[in-house]
Design brief:
Layout (H helix, E strand, L loop, with lengths): L10 H29 L11 H18 L2 H4 L9 E2 L4 E2 L12 E2 L2 E2 H4 L34 H9 L9 H7 L3 H4 L15 H13 L14
Antiparallel strand pairs: 1-2, 3-4
Amino acid sequence: MKTGWYNHIRPGNITLCATAITLALTLAATLGFKNDDDKYKSWDNIKAVTARDSLLSANAFMQVYKVLMSPRCMNCHPSGDIPLNGDDNHLHPQGVKRGPDGKGVYALKCTNCHQKQNTPGLNMPPGTTEEWHLPPSNMKMVFQGKTAHELAEQLKDTKQNGGKSPHDMLEHVKTDLVKWGWNPGEGRSTPPLPYAEFVKQWNQWINSGAVAPASGEKLAR
């Protein structure tokens, strides 16, 4: 009786073939993940592939911009060296200033009043588990007075954003200091989008190409 070709394959050869296939699949998967990770290491790697992506990205940033321009974000990103207070963005009282490291100057350090949690009571000093601070004086990351186009371009500029990559930016929105904006204590408004929606739009902006809205584009009212 004739034997089929499979009768000539030894068990050892089958094991070697299976091992080779497994290694090949593992390598392909590893390279795939590596390439995906590499994409987020530099803003130069983030590009809108199609016109639809470009539109999705720009529209997503307009939603992000609403949050960044709200008092909960903008008050810590002022154009000057004095943080802003309240929903009306008035200058912080008590002579508080940014300082070189963004944590205040001399005896007027941010953490003197801003503790690990909100102080109970109406309009009492807010706080969070992450140390309270402004951006440092050499990297102010100003939001106040910026158009959506200007702010998007600034966020992508590593010379102005503290050296943050796209990955760093995606991680930044998960920090306790950012999350605090949705739990600001009594007497303060929250941003105009729910936190989960803000994160969704932030990811959409970057994943679709990190497109800066056109210079004249306005917020929808």
